[in-house]
Acyl-CoA dehydrogenase family protein
Amino acid sequence: MNLELSEEQTAVRRLARDFVEREIAPHVVDWDRAESVDRSIVKKLGEVGFLGLTVDEEYGGSGGDHLAYCLVTEELGRGDSSVRGIVSVSLGLVAKTIAAWGSEEQKRRWLPGLTAGEYVGCFGLTEPGTGSDAGNLATRAVRDGDHYVLDGTKMFITNGTWADVVLLFARSTDAPGHKGVTAFLVPTDTPGLTRRTVHGKLGLRGQATAELVMEGVRVPASAMLGPEGKGFGVAMSALAKGRMSVAAGCVGIAQAALDAAVRYAGEREQFGRPIAHHQLVQELLSDIAVDVDAARLLTWRVADLVDRGLPFATEASKAKLFASEAAVRAANNALQVFGGYGYIDEYPVGKLLRDARVMTLYEGTSQIQKLLIGRALTGVSAF
Ligand code: FAD
């Protein structure tokens, strides 16, 4: 693979870096303390084209390849993982899945609004009783004439309280396909759908995470995304690319941890000289630097495979597994460099660690990634 960025890729990274400096960095601490990023950021992300990356211009997208998408995601993750998550879900899990699986009518209905930041999308797979074993979900879709009636509860849904549309996975009683899971695009103002904000998160506090409850939610059969009974495949295809996006966000966290730790080590003096002069501090810094590079290279490899139309799902699991664990390690090592000051939120590294921690949990825990990689290696499903 060619590790040289093209002019367009370099330009989009610069654009993202400037956007983060201008629109995100000044607010990060306040948003984290307030447990909400300012919603106006969604429109700004749309205006600059970040919510339309890789989507065809015909549907309001801004085009570009997956490496450009990863570069932007990394920069957003470097700035604020809560904002990065808005893009990874609304574009990465929802808009891109509509672009891949949607009918012409669904694409025209949803993509221009999602890519412009006028709509927010959320991805409703996890339930209170099913997380890792997502295929075992209990939400029901019962056919009633030319409609479906949805009943069930979704848990931990990123963007949930803000979203205009939920890509919802339900067990369709009619479906003969894989475990009968079917995907639906459900407007969140549909009667019978209620939402509750999940408070008290360790990290990603700025993100609107919600529980969604569906009681007799009626949607037309045309709301179905992809064939009936093939919804689990829709979900897994979305998550494979989603893992690339999470990995890129983790690279951003690790890079931010490295930048902050190197700067602080040059400024903070102990034993009569900057702590950067102490060998064990240099060990912490070099451990972070190796994690950043390794995570970035694994992530770029996935983007390269996607852009060349080659199989990428197992490589996405490897990148997500490594990058998420690396982000936690990097943020933790950076906190060690900061000493006691790392433990208070005037300095950035505590938030990086809190935000990094969930990356080993969502879109498949580290254990689930290992089982996916193990299955690819052995042909044996050990779930
Ligand atoms: P469980 O599945 O109960 O797992 C608990 C533990 O058991 C884990 O350590 C797991 O690795 C382990 N385990 C489970 N099965 C096995 C096995 N077979 N072998 C070995 N170990 C196993 N979901 C969405 O659908 N949409 C979202 O937008 C979304 N956003 C999220 C945002 C946040 C902040 C959080 C915290 C979660 C979000 N999730 C979302 C849910 C997330 O994907 C799940 O939390 C995750 O899949 C794990 O499920 P669980 O929490 O039910 O844990």
Observations:
- Strands lie at 121-124, 140-144, 147-157, 165-172, 181-187, 193-197, 210-220, 224-225, 269-270, 273-274.
- The two ends are 33 Å apart (CA to CA).
